[in-house]
Amino acid sequence: MGRARVFPRTARSILTPTGGYLRGFTHSLQPYAGCAFSCAYCYVREMAVQRTNPYGLAWGRWVAPKTNAPELLRARARRRGLRGLRIFCSSATDPYLPLERRLRLTRGCLEVMAEHPPEALVLQTRSPLVARDIDLLARLPVLASVTVTTDREDVRRLLEPDSPSLALRVEVLARLRGAGVRTQAAVAPLLPCDPERLARELDPVVDRVVVDDFFLGDGAGGRRSLMALEQLRAAGHESYTHPGYAEEALRVLRAILGPERVVVSQAGFADLSPVLGAGGGASPPQCSPSGSTKTYS
User: Fold this and answer.
1) Which residues contact 290 (CB under 8 A, 6 or more apart)?
2) What are the pLDDT tens digits along the chain (297 aa)?
3) How far apart are CA 255 and CA 250, in angstroms?
4) What is the residue extent of each domain of the chain?
5) 245 Cα distance to chain centroid
6) CATH class of the 5-275 domain in this structure
């Protein structure tokens, strides 16, 4: 767990109705509160879950496992079923924190969903631990979305110092796709990179890519991303600290991957067509990300 302290707790509920930037989904599912990855750009730093946490610890320094998460989901499935639900897991934590290797709370929830499949599931993570659950994912209407924000390890170490390496993330995307699981790379937020090299690394391992930036993606026009923006300026990446900085990278990604495989921000995250088929999600986003308000995770 690194520097994060662990505070197990019993939750009252496990499915939270969604709205706003998660339009297209009916519920979010968080097997954990808090996070151990402590990414500098994480918008949750400025949200109530952090500002009102009872532990008095900085974001990335506490994790509260919801120890009864699988039991809560199973009770819901037996009582009302999960049919028709479109679930995002997870929007305010990572479902594959290092602690998951031992606690298996996310796996327990996936076991419930394998027995009671929802209409669609998006599993958002930056951890290669997701490959452990390929046996269950292969049975579900799921899009496995792995965060790959850059192709540069120096940038990853600057803003995501407690997160798995980029090579491991690309490798797990390849394993997932090779097992028949639909895959997405979440370039969210886009960090300093070589867009052409990033596109060519992702091309063989993903069904699609969703791109976001600090100003569209943090839900507050960049105000929740001030820590990351300051670190980028200090490191000499001034061009990545202004609205619209993602436009050129989007052009390159679309040229290499094809425009149909590159979606953007809120509309892109909400588009469930890879899971549900044509017409199954929100309308595809336009070529420019302007006007979108998706909050990245």
Assistant:
1) 244
2) 458 899 999 999 999 999 777 888 999 999 999 999 989 998 887 777 887 888 889 888 999 999 999 999 999 999 999 999 999 999 889 999 999 999 999 999 999 999 999 999 999 999 999 999 999 999 999 999 999 999 999 999 999 999 999 999 999 999 999 999 999 999 999 999 999 999 999 999 999 999 999 998 767 788 788 899 999 999 999 999 999 999 999 999 999 999 999 999 999 999 999 998 865 544 333 333 333 333 344
3) 8
4) 5-275
5) 21
6) alpha beta
